[in-house]
Amino acid sequence: MSVLEAPRAPVPPKPRNPRTVLAGWVAGAVVVAVHVIAWRATDISIADLVDGWQGMADFLAEAVPPDLSPGLLRESAEASLVTLWIGLLGTTLSVPLSLMLALLAARGTSPAGWIYQITRGLLSFLRAVPDVVFALIFVTAVGLGPFPGVLALVTHNVGVMGKLWAETLEDADPGPATALRSAGAGRIQVAAHALLPSVMPQMVGLLLYRFDVNVRSSLVLGLVGAGGIGFLINQSIQLFQFDQMLTHILVVLVLIIAVDRLSAVVRRRLAPAGAS
Amino acid sequence: MLRLTGLAVRYGDREILRGIDIEVAAGELLAVLGANGSGKSTLLRAAAGLDPVSRGSITVADRQRRTMDIALVFQKIHLVGRRSALDNVCAGALGRLPLRRSLTPALFPRDVREEAMACLDRVGLANRAHDRAGRLSGGQQQRVAIARALCQRAPVVLADEPVSALDPAAAEQVLALLAELAHGEGLAVLAVLHQPDLARRHADRIVGLRDGAVVLEGDPRQPVDGLYADREPEAVR
After folding, report:
1. Which one of A41, A117, A176, B43 is at 20 to 30 Å from A150 when CA atoms are compared?
2. pTM
């Protein structure tokens, strides 16, 4: 039978609920209205951007070519490593507390409703306070340098990782947990033997993603005195040494790409692991 | 061994089970048959304590059912795919282990690991002990789940459509294994099944459910067409 001769049947019109259609239009109108408000509140002006292009061009002209003297490159590389170490410790040192709070903030593992609510509130607070603010607080406690940067990242990261991991645990296949619960396993045993092993690749993937983010955040923390390459970038801007600033930015670019590639490779290796 | 007396389950206004009386003796494989919606799985979940019962009682060896008395084998198997077959079987013993000896598989006492190994051997999978459960075939995974149930040391095993997701050869193997465990280990096994022919070949007795009530009971070779007759066919998807 040719395609032309193949039997056909009329397609009935798709039933549409007028209320659903109206709700769609209302949602669309709200989204547009919110964007108009945001556009006005942030003083966005294409005209100002076009008028000010000369300032940007002058800035870039002073930065190019970058200063590639060996002394500066070495200083930049050493500071980049400090930035990397801040990001690394800011991520790994947050793991124990993040895991504990994630277990208390996930519906399947939290021992009581009120504990769930309090933990969720604490995680929201730690996320809501930017890491830069934590860095300023810790600088007043322990002075300038990488240490307050690590403390700031750990504190903020606990809030983010705790929430992400809690949601991963809530999304885990409940089957193995039901099986172990029916065999008499307690809450912690169920978490240790059913939930955590099932979602371990996702949790490690999220941790690596946060490592990636934290390395970039530690750069910003350098601007407020937490050491690393951010501190050098800030210094070169204040001294109008834009060619040195560009050198530092290029070194940072290499660092960020390396971290991104590394975490992508590890995540890819974790992904295809067997069922559930 | 397992006795369900006047068991009723209600979801809102609907009575799903209407006073079920079933007894499964030690060393017996009882198959529960019935069409979709007849209450088979609800019966099993209620007996296992996963769903609340509105009235009736469940006893094991003449005393009130305790969690550890009943081991479950699920249709969807529910193993942790990333863990080894042996670790999955060890998890069956979690209910009797203190937390400090069971927080990770590495902490499991040697006797539990050896017992789990014996359970795997019992289901014919000793040679796959260290393979990830997720890499085993469906039939092998279900056998690991049965080994996990054995490691729980429960006198009663409830199996909820344990062969629905398996090919005919694997289904045959799993049912034969359940029958062997009932007869050889003296376990009371209640299996919810969709395949009357499997029940005919392996069960010692059958119970037929229809609309939440027992409508036939006894010889597995008796005709069961009445359980499935006059039902509206399900919409073809």
Report:
1. A117
2. 0.78
